Amino acid sequence: MFNIFKQKEIYINAPFKGEVIELENVADQVFSQKMLGDGFAIIPEENILKSPVNGEIIQIFPTGHALGIKTKDGLELLIHLGIDTVELAGQGFNKLVEEGAKIKQGRALIEFDLDYIRENSPSTATPIVITNMEKIKKIEILKKGSVKAGQKILKVILA
């Protein structure tokens, strides 16, 4: 009647065309052991990271290899392009947004040189992690394997 008991659902979409894998399969213990939070990873087939949600850029690393987004519901996401890519010192990454930018799902955030990352880092797998898991009641991966940019990947139910 008034949706008092309706659960708040948020969907996290694919930031580019690629292959969705579980975090446990990422070649980095910080992500595979979910030390920063839970979510999924995607192996990119495109070279532009697009926002998986509506929100605000709350952090973008100077090297351009990772960023944080906060949704209007307070969900905080960390997106990390590739594994050990901080070691590339910004080479191969071009930031298209700045901290504080209000963004819509699908907006281009970072352009990256996929071939350079393949050649110079252990993996192109891109973890997308919810860093404030205390706000989460349940998460569910909706799709694994090959996905298109913008496709719903993770269903999040807020606590």
Automatic annotation (TrEMBL):
One of its GO terms (cellular component) is cytoplasm. GO terms for molecular function: kinase activity. InterPro entries: Dup_hybrid_motif, PTS_EIIA_1_perm, PTS_EIIA_component. The keyword Transferase applies. GO terms for biological process: phosphoenolpyruvate-dependent sugar phosphotransferase system. The keyword Transferase applies. It is found in: Cytoplasm. Keywords: Kinase, Phosphotransferase system, Sugar transport, Transferase, Transport. PANTHER family: PTS SYSTEM GLUCOSE-SPECIFIC EIIA COMPONENT (PTHR45008:SF1). This is PTS glucose transporter subunit IIA.
